[in-house]
């Protein structure tokens, strides 16, 4: 006897507040759609993340929640909950904070699941203990919340990989507006919102950029307004090195990264964006761990020294030297880029 199809469901996901985590949340959205193809997925998310969510075909609706960092935003959360009331059967709360569970509770969504955190009694009616040994990656934790408690406990389940849609018309317009060449492009992402202990030295980026230009590449330095000065340090006086930090929207970064042959990147949100558009990644890890937040792609090379003090997961180096990144040489990364580029040419 054939199994009856799963009933349609209206699912509200309270999304994370970091670019990389929002990209990884697509693995949850994909898993939900695979299990219930007729389901409708809405995502509560900060306004900045809407351009990313709009590139995910699984997301049917974005409910913007703009609350300042450290701000409670009671009236904003209550107003959003009123608009969502009666429209969803189930809520999945990805962050572990108390206030992140408020909107589903105030919206009176019948089923509300999330990991135990900040004593969310009452706000969630299915609180799960987080087994950090079994769910040892952020993406696994996200996907697990979309499964039954039993299946999540067993810990053996598929992790669909994120895949963001690329806008070719926007990419063509960007090429013209930004004055980009037709050389093969290497993206560089020198920023990391979490802190300097995740950032490869700017001098290393600059040395690598100069060597790549000499090898016939164009270099695109990508990041937000906070990264403009870093981009200037890398690009100043170097032909074919474009500092695009602060000159593009997040949606533009998706398209520009898809157009790069490879990227050299810290463990950052844009690293996960690059993975989700299929670009070859040279990923630089210092204070964080490639075991915990790896790029979700087979098309990546991890550069991690694994010093005795690593990973410390600190925002700034507790020892004051950041040797985990300083000792990761530009020559090593250059060899990896050229080796991967040669492989692409050979396959072509």
What would you say this structure looks like, in words?
The chain is α/β, with parallel strands linked by helices and 348 residues long. The protein has two domains: 10-154, Rossmann fold, CATH 3.40.50.2000; 169-347, 3-Layer(aba) Sandwich (Rossmann fold), CATH 3.40.50.2000. Helix content is 35%, strand content 16%. It has 13 helices and twelve strands. The strands form two sheets. A six-stranded parallel beta sheet has the order 3-2-1-4-5-6. The protein has a six-stranded parallel beta sheet with strand order 9-8-7-10-11-12, sandwiched between helices. α1 links the parallel β1 and β2. α1 packs parallel to α5, α1 (19-35) runs parallel beside α11 (269-276) and α8 packs across α9 (228-235). It is globular and about 60 Å long. The protein starts with 9 loop residues before the first strand and ends with a helix.
Percentage of β-strand residues: 15-25%
Class based on secondary structure composition and strand pairing: alpha/beta
Termini Cα gap: 48 Å
Name of the CATH class of the largest domain: Alpha Beta
CATH superfamily of the largest domain: Glycogen Phosphorylase B
Task: Write down the overall geometry.
Answer: globular
């Amino acid at each position: 006897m054939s199994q009856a199809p799963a009933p349609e469901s209206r699912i509200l996901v309270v999304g994370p507040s970091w670019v990389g985590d929002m990209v990884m949340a697509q693995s949850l959205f994909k898993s939900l759609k695979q299990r219930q193809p007729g389901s409708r997925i809405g995502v509560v998310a900060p306004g900045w993340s809407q351009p990313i969510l709009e590139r995910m075909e699984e997301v049917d609706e974005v409910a913007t929640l703009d609350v300042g960092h450290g701000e409670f935003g009671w009236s904003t959360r209550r107003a959003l909950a009123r608009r969502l009331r009666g429209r969803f059967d189930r809520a999945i709360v990805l962050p572990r904070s108390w206030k992140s569970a408020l909107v589903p509770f105030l919206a009176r969504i019948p089923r509300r699941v999330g990991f135990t955190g900040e004593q969310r009694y009452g706000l969630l009616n299915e609180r799960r203990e987080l087994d950090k040994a079994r769910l040892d990656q952020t993406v696994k934790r996200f996907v697990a919340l979309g499964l039954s408690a039993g299946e999540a406990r067993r810990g053996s389940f598929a992790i669909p990989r994120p895949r963001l849609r690329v806008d070719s018309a926007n990419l063509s317009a960007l090429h013209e507006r930004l004055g980009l060449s037709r050389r093969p492009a290497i993206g560089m992402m020198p920023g990391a919102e979490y802190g300097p202990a995740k950032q490869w030295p700017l001098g290393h980026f600059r040395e690598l950029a100069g060597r790549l230009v000499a090898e016939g590449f164009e270099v695109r330095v990508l990041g937000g307004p906070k990264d403009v000065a870093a981009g200037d340090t890398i690009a100043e006086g170097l032909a074919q090195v474009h500092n695009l930090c602060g000159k593009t929207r997040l949606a533009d970064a998706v398209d520009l990264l898809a157009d790069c042959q490879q990227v050299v990147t810290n463990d950052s949100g844009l690293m996960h964006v690059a993975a989700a558009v299929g670009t070859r990644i040279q990923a630089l890890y210092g204070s964080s761990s490639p075991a915990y937040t790896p790029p979700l792609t087979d098309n990546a090379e991890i550069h991690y020294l694994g010093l005795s003090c690593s990973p410390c997961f600190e925002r700034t180096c507790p020892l004051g030297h950041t040797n985990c990144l300083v000792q990761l040489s530009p020559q090593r990364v250059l060899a990896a880029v050229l080796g991967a580029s040669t492989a692409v040419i050979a396959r072509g």
